[in-house]
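User: My collaborator and I are trying to settle a disagreement about how two of our proteins should look. Neither of us wants to argue from intuition anymore, so we agreed to look at predicted structures for both before our next call. Could you fold the first one, then the second, and keep them clearly separated?

Assistant: That sounds like a sensible way to settle it. I'll keep them separate. The first protein:
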Amino acid sequence: MSTENDALKAVVREKYAEISNQSKNNNESSCCGVGSSCCSTVDYAVFADDYSTQKGYNPDADLGLGCGIPTEFAQIKVGDTVVDLGSGAGNDCFVARELTGEKGRVIGVDMTEEMINKARQNVDKLGFNNVEFRLGDIEEMPVGAGVVDVIVSNCVLNLVPNKPKAFLEMNRVLKAGGHFSVSDVVIEGELPDALKNDAEMYAGCVSGAIQKSEYLSLLVKAGFEDVTVQKEKEVQLPDELLSEYMSGDEIAKYRSSDRGIYSITVYGKKPEASCCEGSGCC
């Protein structure tokens, strides 16, 4: 399994290194920014939400790769320490920085060196001294335990092969009582095997997704409470894309079924620390 996971990560890393050098307009004309032939006709607007009205928005950091606006629901307070998982060029980090203010701290984590370099260039131009970007794997986060107030992430965790490990890492770095708000892609019902297994589409946000019920269950198993879907919208993949994987009849059956791809924003909280006599926690 680790070999397979490493191969999937290599696909994602390669594609997002390519994306880092593209404009937002180029990325929006392909599937999650992945300019493969199977995705070249897809308007990324089927996934993305408009950030342009968000305070702290910086166009240079917006590569058009999200599937929600998790900072809208993240309840970030002045002075909070915020971590953005899969921070890309820094878009969500800069919006989060507006909310946490100069007294707060924002850490972006991304496994693609080209994205980290682009994000650091952006923060240098903005002159922020409380936003930093760290190269690292979400499954082994370069962040200390129990130091984070809020985690955000935007259309990234579905790309992580070992989601249970990633969710446990989220729990590890959060303070007791800390919480997350993450936007992600999930599915309901079974997707066609060809679509589900295609490596290009894995990097393009769809086939890395798991069942919504499983996604929420894994968060609970990782120790989070109050796991709640804050926002949900169905993603309509156009026929031009589906025709790469299905016949016309299969597309019609897919359209009329209860199967679907959804963008969700999910909240969860790490329980408050309990202190028992003799435990040493006090």
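The second protein, kept apart from the first:
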Amino acid sequence: MEGILARQVLVLNRCWQAVNVVGMKRAFSLLIQGHADVIHQEEGDFQLYDFNQWLDSSEYCEDNTRDYLHTVSHFIRLPKVIILKFFDRLPIKEVKFHRKNIFERDSFRCQYCGKAFKESELNLDHVIPRHHGGRTSWENVVASCINCNSRKADRLPHEAGMHLIRKPLKPKWRPFVAVAENKHRHRSWDYFLNPLQGR
């Protein structure tokens, strides 16, 4: 039972945008309270089920039993995706400014030579050095390899004969980066996390 309740469910707002991932216990709580419906794909079409409809449909479905929650009186299919009935916004979150997020924004590539490196082989570089008034900000800090970092030193890129492969910008918050990279996520999530690929 504990293993089943630890499974994750993708949550959409009522505009069908992914906004969260919750455990099975929380998902069932939202369904029972009438705050959400189950989205289930059948023969290429998406069907919505409130909790009672989902309960009824579970009785007539011959699915793998590990995809069920067994109660005293029911077998209930485990939902993979639920949609909130009343929430239509996207959560607002700031991406924290720190080393790992800069490397992720820059795809672990040196922003001068363009080559990919392991995290341990990258440094942070102030494009406009601090002694030139450069700020420690998303727009002025980039990933750079040890060779390029040493070559540039405390100079401006053009003074070192170097150019950025792209302008550094503050990244937009990407919901579910961890989910998108999680190999255990359910394939039915792909349609909502990568809508262009799923359609």
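Some points you might bring to the call about the second protein. The chain has two domains: 2-91+174-198, 99-160. The chain is about 25% helix and 20% strand.
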